[in-house]
């Protein structure tokens, strides 16, 4: 999305966007599904970190994880804190099973208030509040509902057309890679979704040995703002900060980039300089 929604991160950092195993430029039809695990993704992330440390001659770097990447980011920070200046989470995932149920209840209430019988019927076919599976068919309905309410990927995007156009217009991908983008998303989701739903970071990662900063949009129901804030409150870390983005849903890095960069410059980097001194 950075072509149409630039973040400004490149003015503060040398940025590496990771095209992870089974998605983006790395998507291959013959990728073995049994290699698509969270543990393997953490190992891959550490391999990328090792490459970057060697290439740029740095002992430590910053890891920023967005959405599902925020789960990996926390696990990487837990595994190898000595390699990081800090961890930065955007749309921080902590307990996604609960997040999905909170979002479902919220959407039902909002669509009832609006008298949107069509969306209500679609949602009520998947009573996840009564134990129904949070499966791919439901996720498609969920995405439509969240987009319609402005509580999904980008608050001001009320149509799924814009994210599709963002991929199609991106100059960094070949046409084949653009076509593979949704295939990689579907493949990754199919392999990883159940594992993601089963993770509870409150129990698995109660403490991190690096500074932790979380940026979260107040309209975000794709990954619960409330749960992310609660997680950071109980997480033990040498330094931590939770930053609310009042005009954002799930992507404050794209929705309020100037605010994000100001926090990174004036708080995150300034604190890191003080700790190094």
Helix content: 40-55%
- Tell me, what's the shape? globular
Query: Rg to the nearest angstrom?
Result: 19 Å
Strand content: 5-15%
Distance between the termini: 36 Å
Low-confidence region ranges: none
* Pattern of helices and strands: HEHEHHHHHHEHEHH
- What is the overall pLDDT average? 95
| Tally of helical segments | 11
Secondary-structure class: alpha/beta
Strand order of the largest sheet: 1-2-3-4
Features:
single chain; alpha/beta; four-stranded parallel β-sheet; 11 helices; 4 strands
Explained architecture:
The chain has 277 residues and is α/β, with parallel strands linked by helices. The protein has helices at residues 38-56, 68-79, 96-114, 117-124, 136-149, 161-169, 175-197, 201-204, 225-234, 252-255, 257-276; strands at 61-66, 84-90, 212-217, 240-245. Strands 1-2-3-4 form a 4-stranded parallel β-sheet, with helices on both faces. Helix 2 links the parallel strand 1 and strand 2 (84-90). Helix 3 runs antiparallel to helix 4 (117-124). The two termini are 36 Å apart.
Short description:
By secondary structure, this protein is α/β, with parallel strands linked by helices. The chain has helices at 38-56, 68-79, 96-114, 117-124, 136-149, 161-169, 175-197, 201-204, 225-234, 252-255, 257-276, and strands at 61-66, 84-90, 212-217, 240-245.
